[in-house]
Each structure stands twice: as C-alpha cells, then as structure tokens.
Design brief:
CATH architecture of the largest domain: 2-Layer Sandwich
Largest sheet: 5 strands, antiparallel
Mean pLDDT: 96
Low-confidence stretches: none
Catalytic activity: UDP-N-acetyl-alpha-D-muramate + NADP(+) = UDP-N-acetyl-3-O-(1-carboxyvinyl)-alpha-D-glucosamine + NADPH + H(+)
Radius of gyration: 20 Å
Number of helices: 9
Protein name: UDP-N-acetylenolpyruvoylglucosamine reductase
CATH topology of the largest domain: Uridine Diphospho-n-acetylenolpyruvylglucosamine Reductase, domain 3
Function: Cell wall formation.
Number of domains: 3
Strand content: 15-25%
Strand order of the largest sheet: 6-7-12-10-11
Helix content: 25-40%
Order of helices and strands: EEHEEEEEHHEEEEHEHHEHEEHEEHE
Structural class: alpha+beta
Shape: globular
Organism: Kitasatospora gansuensis
EC number: 1.3.1.98
Length: about 350
Amino acid sequence: MLVELDAPLAPLTTLRLGGPARRLVTAATDEEVIATVRAADLAAEPLLVIGGGSNLVIGDQGFDGTVLRIATTGFALDGVDLELAAGEVWSDAVARAVDAGLAGIEFLAGIPGSAGATPVQNVGAYGQEVASGITEVVAYDRRADEVVTLTNAECGFSYRHSRFKADPERYVVLRVRFRLEDADGQSTPVRYAEVARTLGVEAGERVALRTAYKTVLGLRAGKGMVLDPADHDTWSAGSFFTNPVLTADQYADFLTRLGERTAPAYPAPDGCTKTSAAWLIDQAGFGKGYGTGAATLSTKHTLALTNRGTASTADLLGLAREIRDGVRTAFGVDLVNEPVMIGVAL
C-alpha cells in the first residue's frame, strides 16, 4: 500500500484537472481497500475513492482528506461468467472478453476508467450498458462494516444511475461479476442506429464480434473519446451531460419551443421521452470547438468539454454553466452533468 502526502490528483484524472490530495493511498488488494476505508471512517476523515479518474471533476483546491486510489487487479473467466477486480482497466477487460470470443460488453469498447466504476454510473454506449450483463457486485458496505454481494436487481440500475450513485457514501465496489454470451463469434444484436449504419446492417442483426468491437473503437476515436495524451480533444470526462429524459408535460413544452425543427426523440420508461444532449447543445449555438479559453468543447464532439492543456477546473465549469444556461434559455431543458463533482458544483 503506497501512501503519499500532498499528492497531485490532476494526473490521475482524464481531464487532468484538480488540486492535490492531503493524503493519497494506492491500494492493490481488497484488504488494503477495506482497511483504508475503515480507518478513514473511524477517524471521521473525508474520503474520496477513485479508479481510472475518467468521470471526475475535482475542484482546484483539491481534496482535504484521504483519496483512495483502487489499483486492484483480477480478470477471472469461468465459461461465460466473468469477474473483474474493481481496479482493472475497463477497456483492457473488454478487449480480453472479445479475445475470448464472448459477447455482452463489446459495444462498450474504448471507454476509459476502471471496472469498479462501471456499475456506479451504469456505464453505457452505443445501445449497450453494463446493467444488462452484471449479475452481482461485491462491495464493502461502510455502514454495516462488512463485505456484501448485491444482485443485479439490488443494484437499482437505471439510465446512468444505480444504488451506488444514489448513496455514494455507503458502498465501495470491490468486484463486478458479469454473465457474457457465447454467440459463436457473433456480437450481441446491434441496437444503435449509428453503429448499424456504419456496419451496413439493420438494427437487431448480429455481426462478427471483433468487427463490432473495432467499429465502436473507430467511432469513439473519431469523436475524441479514446484516450490519447497527444490529443487535447481526449482530455475530457467523456460525455459531460446526460441525455435529458422529459416527462410528457416537459416534452410538450419542448415541442412548442422547437417550432418547425425536429429533435431526436426516443421512448423512455414511465411515458417519458429521451432526447439528445449533443443536439440541444449544437442547436443552442455551441458547436464543436466552441470556446476561446483554456477549456473548450471538443472539436470532434459537442458533448465533451475539454482541457486544452492549461485549463483550471474553474475554467471548465464556467464553460459548462454557459452551455447549460444557453440550452435552458433556448429549449427550457435542464442539462445534468454526468461526471461526479468533487468540491465543486454546477
């Protein structure tokens, strides 16, 4: 277990932003993770748990407490059942599952971050989300001071949400278990229109597993969503805003504001309608590359707010607020940030 004082946090995030941690602990085993969390709780010390740092916006003042960096490793495959340690690099785990000929997470290729973060956010992309494959999550319950195993149903998954996100002070994910699919080298059915168009197939069809994997990597790279230290378009937290889910009344008001324009619309649970945050941002006047300061929109994708190399967290949040307020004025829709905010808020 490595302990560092006054340790910089910016290099541990994909945005490369944020001030230092008073104390940074890097834990390589579940036992070290639990011991660190338990010690912080007994001392009533603020605790921040991070993995790959891909979904974090940390304030410029840093974190006055203990930051626990989970660096555990473990990739265990038993037939179609996969168990990942929380510290496993997610993109590497997806590649290994594809190499094993198993479908179920191939459309989540190239997503940065750690395996342990995926159930917290119910990570999803290109018509697939981890909730569809997770069978169990093993976590340390800080309230009960014990290791618990939660079934898929007990995780409370919904769009970019989970029990872990709803109660962030309670659980620390240790391991994630998936049930994948042996489809004779084929992918799960293609559900996302952009992927189907790129592959030249109809929605619902299957394609070669490796073809699906490589296609998604290509699409993500084209949007600056695959990490590349030399490309500032990838110095981001991925999609900064979630796609808005509107109630029937909200959607009716939205349609009135649209006038003759047609916005993307997808059915959502409880009679709601989901629309595209990227479309709203663009139509509100914030195109690719918008901004003149050290934080701008990506030149490849309007949903990614990027650090051009010298930005501060204050710079990034200033841009985020400008975009949020512009969309609200134009369409009456409130955009919600997807990354977790540490010491700051929109």
